[in-house]
Amino acid sequence: MILTVTPNPSLDRTYGVPALTRGRVLRADGERVDPGGKGVNVSRAVAAAGVRTTAVLPLGGAPGVLLAELLGAQGVDVTAVTIAGQTRSNIALAEPDGTLTKINSPGPELSREESALLLDTVRSCAAEVAWIACCGSLPRGLEPGWYAELVHRAHAAGARIALDTSGPALPAALAARPDVIELDAAELASAVGRPLPTLGDAIKAAEELRTLGARAVLVSLGRDGRLLVSAEGACHGTAPTPAVRSRVGAEDASLAGFLIAGGAGPEALASALAHGAAAVRLPGSVMPTPADLLPDQVRITQDPPLDDGF
Q: Among all residues, which ones are annotated catalytic?
């Protein structure tokens, strides 16, 4: 069982348009509505792999009701924390050449009572799960230290924590010692305050985050694969993606693959790469099933050369 927590989920509406022209009336040639949010996507990918998952979500208004219904149809159990505000709706405009223009709503502001109830709900569910994936930005009303409190409570219940966030919430959470943090190369560079032109630089930066509290660091390097740095050392892996259709949710699918395979070591890194590579070959935010994976194409190198550039 993998539990996910998405403090600021969304209902994502995507419209296909011939071209994006400012100041004009645009007629969409297609529309789709999907559940959105990084933790939501992790749950969708876990469910697509045939593994049990529950998504803990603050939900409000008609968008919240529809979001829960869409997730239920995809095999995701939803534990809803009812809030006074409405779940946010995001808009994406997709052009034929693959250009995607997104408008993300800030979302509702959670009250102190709603914030506390969300923490209590996660704590009550934590004893039955192997991993809790806490993902995405914090909505208005939640302080940067909210994720740190969640990590403390989850560890007290015996669950392991995977954290995927950025900005002030990341350094605030590190002292709580999350079991693994996921971030991309740009977020890693921002976290240490310097550019990271080589694989060795990325490994050193990941080690710095480990000294600040992260027990393991999983880094997405885009087309250059993924990096895992833990107490067992560093390993790097790649998976070919010759036909990229959409990168929406691919990192979330990759985190799901990592956790499904145990969340530690080269085998979990290989699973993360296989799931991420499969996701980018699929349209929109469709999550891969086991039939979509190509594990034989994944390559893992332990103790990789430090001078490799990106």
A: 252
